[in-house]
Amino acid sequence: MPSPKYLEIQNLLLQRIKNGDYQEGQLIPKEVDLAEQLNVSRPTVRHAIRNLVQGGYLERRKKRGTIVTQTKIKQQFTHVIESYNTEIQNNGLVAKTQVLNFSTEKASDEVAEALTIKPNTEVYKLVRLRSADNKPVVFVVTYLPIAQLPDLQKIDFTHHSLYSELAKAGLEITHVSRKIEVHPATEEEAQLLETDIKAPIFYFHTIGFTKDHRALEYSIASYRGDLNYFMVEIDKH
């Protein structure tokens, strides 16, 4: 069964946005001009554009027209457990991870409480900057107990997923607890994430648990507010 005409036009316009034919902040042609160029009716073009506006790819501006917006990345980790690479690939983007630091240190009171260990216990500190299509998206600091993961520093997390490696070690993360806050970006975060100082940053404090309820991961992730949105699904029980 052939696709509806508006869907064909919608996909064509979306491809032009992704290819850079229509760039961020640029006005797309008027409906009447697109209808003439593509040999379709104006209602068909209007339907296609409306769907792209609802999807966050376009924005209607009074007295100006319709512009290409900065597309936000749909993040679903608020209700599912999956790797960063999977999330980014599901958005049709290329994920990249840069390991800024992987060292050991003594657990602070905050880290010790999250991992249910004694303060000053030795833990790993894994610091990563993660990007989508070469644009920095999130800065993550992760703490893990050394006692349960003695060989973790042998792994190059530039190319390997932390959750996948934990699963291989028989320590799969099956449940997480997350606290969400919004704060202005610090100078360091603004520099790493290539945004403005005091720009909105989503902070996710995550504790990851194994199936036997052991706290194995404590992460603090700083997400750019202008590049991400977060899906939450709630069922009535």
UniProtKB/TrEMBL annotation:
- Domain HTH gntR-type: residue ranges: 3-71
What keywords does the record list, in alphabetical order? DNA-binding, Transcription, Transcription regulation
Q: Which Pfam families match?
A: GntR (PF00392), UTRA (PF07702)
* Superkingdom of origin organism: Bacteria
Q: Which CDD domains match?
A: WHTH_GntR
What protein name applies here?
GntR family transcriptional regulator
Origin species: Lactobacillus kitasatonis
